[in-house]
Design a protein that fits this description.
CATH superfamily: P-loop containing nucleotide triphosphate hydrolases
CATH architecture: 3-Layer(aba) Sandwich
CATH class: Alpha Beta
CATH topology: Rossmann fold
Strand content: 5-15%
Helix content: 40-55%
Shape: globular
Order of helices and strands: EHEHHHEHEHHEHEE
Number of strands: 7
Largest sheet: 5 strands, parallel
Strand order of the largest sheet: 2-3-1-4-5
Structural class: alpha/beta
Number of helices: 8
């Protein structure tokens, strides 16, 4: 893992921060990633949103596009190429299942979120307005497809979590607690004592 960039008025050069938040569907990674980007004044990129937009453009579901991507590597590669390019610019929080494995050599912090399958299915069902059974089917289908594709295209086993700085089981914490754990990990990784919340109208330090 690269040395944490220093500098800036609070001891951190925010323009060089690269934070990856990874995890399976419904694990809470987007909630944490979006808030970190907002609070720290960083750019936010969701590869899941890019994938969903491609599905919409092609008139297929996300599950169907996942199956298509198993036969057409250009789908994943185009999304991942953009993600890697954006990471190279710095000053970003990336919300992506695979991001951590692809940019671990340049990332400041790698966060992994998880939760039991049934918990994640209930969250997805509530978010998408579908039944828990439908959410379970979509989640398991997508995860199996992703596991196969990432292993085939990149040699990555997404079950190996050894690269992460922190693993947060979001079923054991409230949203605020889970988020504060991620911020605390960033504080410890930077070594500057306290992370400064610097988004618009949010000038404050994190209370540990």
């Amino acid at each position: 893992m690269p040395e944490m960039p220093g500098g800036g008025s609070e001891g951190v050069d925010y323009k060089r921060l690269v934070i990856a938040v990874s995890g399976p569907p419904g694990s809470g990674k987007s909630t944490i990633a979006r808030r970190m980007a907002s609070d720290l004044g960083l750019r936010y990129l969701s590869t899941g949103s890019i994938f969903r937009s491609i599905a919409a453009e092609r008139g297929v579901s996300v599950v169907e596009l996942s199956r298509m991507a198993e036969e057409d590597p250009s789908i994943d590669l185009s999304v991942d190429r953009r993600m890697i390019e954006e990471a190279g610019r710095g000053g970003i929080v990336i919300d992506s299942h695979l991001a951590a494995w692809l940019i671990h050599d340049r990332a400041t912090l790698l966060v992994y979120t998880k939760a039991p399958l049934i918990v994640r299915a209930r969250r997805v069902a509530e978010r998408d307005g579908v039944s828990v059974e439908e959410a379970l089917e979509e989640i398991t289908t997508r995860e199996y497809s992703q596991w196969r594709r990432f292993k085939r295209y990149y040699g990555v086993d997404v079950r190996d979590l050894g690269i992460f700085d922190i693993i947060i089981d979001t079923s054991r914490y409230g949203r605020e607690e889970a988020y504060m754990l991620a911020l605390k990990a960033l504080e410890l990784k930077t070594g500057v004592g306290q992370v400064f919340i610097r988004g618009p109208g949010k000038q404050r330090r994190v209370e540990g």
